[in-house]
Amino acid sequence: MTVNGMNGTPEEGCDDEPGLERYACMLRKRDLKVTSPRVRLLQFLEHRDDHPTVDTIHSEVSEKVPSLSKTTVYTTLELFRQEGLVKVLTINPSEIRYEFGQDVHHHLLCEQCDRIYDIDVGCPYLGSMLNGEHKVKEVHGYFRGTCKHCLAASADKETEEET
């Protein structure tokens, strides 16, 4: 499925590369300069499922790349977005979050813990939109509610209060 002009996933064709070379391969495939910050940012994002903010990304990646500035994080993430390496999530208008890859899926924002979860639900119109006369650049699907972890914690708390 093509979204943002990219076919497949960012790692396609680089799967056999060992360690950090895998991320360098992804950059070279797009004719991008391979730098330590770019490699480390890709590695960090691929292994996260919590859709981190720029502040979180900068804080954690700068532990491995001490010279990393927040400006570099912003500009690199924008470059990655343009190249189809990451997606930008704006579920909450007060913050921007990032995730690795371009696969089409929806998200659930838990209003209790503020965590964002990937939700794999089908869209009956997606195929016709992508294969039709329209050119789809992005697909967004957001749900707001309470995640299963917060629901379970609430149920446990209610049970404790009853006893």
Q: Beta fraction of the residues?
A: 15-25%
Task: Give the helix/strand class.
Answer: alpha+beta
The major β-sheet equals: 3 strands, mixed
Distance between the termini: 53 Å
Mean pLDDT: 86
Main sheet: strand order: 6-5-7
Q: What overall form do the CA principal axes indicate?
A: globular
User: What is the N-to-C order of secondary-structure elements (H for helix, E for strand)?
Assistant: EEHHHHEEEEHEH
- Could you estimate the helical fraction of the residues in percent? 25-40%
* DSSP summary, beta strand count: 7
Number of helices: 6
Write a structural description.
The protein has 163 residues and is α+β, with helices and mostly antiparallel strands. Helix content is 38%, strand content 15%. The strands form three sheets. It has a three-stranded mixed beta sheet with strand order 6-5-7, with no helix packed on it. A two-stranded antiparallel ribbon has the order 1-2. A two-stranded antiparallel sheet has the order 3-4. A hairpin with a 5-residue loop joins β5 and β6. The chain is globular, with a radius of gyration of 18 Å. The N and C termini lie far apart (53 Å).
